[in-house]
Amino acid sequence: MSACMALASLAILAVGCSAPARSPADARNADRQRAVEELADATQVVGAMRDVPISLRHRARCVAVVPSLLRAGLFVGARHGDGVVTCRSGAAWTGPVFVSLTGGSAGWQIGVESSDLVLLVMTERGMTQLFRTSFALGADASAAAGPAGGAAQAATDASLTAEIYSYARTRGLFAGAELSGTVVQQNVDALAAMYGPPADARAILAGKVAAPAEAAPFLAQIALAFPEAPAAALAAVAGAR
Q1: Does residue 33 or residue 105 have the better pLDDT?
Q2: Beta-ladder partners of 118
Q3: Distance (Å, whole) CA 117 – CA 138
Q4: CA nearest neighbour of 69 among 168, 176, 139, 163
Q5: Is 216's pLDDT higher than 60?
Q6: Which of 4, 42, 86, 199 has the fewest Cβ atoms within 10 Å of its own Cβ atom?
Q7: Helix H segments across 73-147?
Q8: How far is CA 187 from CA 86, 143, 179, 198, in A?
Q9: What value does the mean pLDDT take over residues 10-15?
Q10: What's the mean pLDDT in 200-228?
Q11: Structural domain harbouring 72
Q12: Which ranges of the chain would DSSP assign to H, the alpha helix?
């Protein structure tokens, strides 16, 4: 694929392209179908997650999964992807909120690349950013590439201070990803299609809105991959602080 074609592909994903007018019902059905497909893809991504430290998975307050984050560029690039977010609510996980990620990337790059992205929201303040219509990683919430492999073994709870940790899966392996400057924005069309208008992302992520039936496999996989921390581990972390 040429660099120009790669840029064109990303532009189409980010802003859409002209198409024949559709009825409101057809548009909602199409948005709902895309949302269901995103949930299915996100379920597969979470099921394949092997390299994210269990200590971070225990402590994560919210999880965002973006299957197929596309990055394309000619010298200076751009990236875009759609995904879902869920947060802990007691011992359960909330219904998913649909989001889009858009940002730039510097450096020499020609062509297009796709990777699966997982964001772990670790703090209360980071969680409240998800209630906003949009926020920027690194500016509105501190973000860092998540530790993996040997770095994960060496890391301690005291040294892991970012509000959000990011991981990207390329060629089957998850590794920390640097996403500072990327904007996370609510996908209002997908939200309305799945929950009905007006959809309130704050209420959904607070556990006040029942999850749609289509989200059950995704939430079950999240519960397996992000179990609650054992009481002894939580006590040890509290004591260290």
Answers
A1: 33
A2: 65, 167
A3: 16
A4: 168
A5: yes
A6: 4
A7: 124-129
A8: 14, 21, 19, 13
A9: 46
A10: 95
A11: 3-240
A12: 3-15, 24-47, 54-59, 124-129, 150-154, 188-195, 201-205, 216-225, 231-240
The Cβ-side half-sphere exposure at 62, using a 13 Å CA radius, reads 26
- Check residue 156 and give its pLDDT: 46
129 C-beta neighbours (distance < 10 Å), count: 19
- How many folded domains does the chain comprise? 1
Token representation of residue 184: 């996370």
Report the pLDDT value the prediction gives residue 184, as an integer from 0 to 100: 92
DSSP 56-87: HHHH-SEEEEEEEEEEEEESEEEEEEEEEEEE
pTM recorded for the entire structure: 0.79
- The pair of structure tokens assigned to 10 is 């990303």
Encoded amino acid at 85, one letter: V
Single-letter code of the amino acid located at 205: L
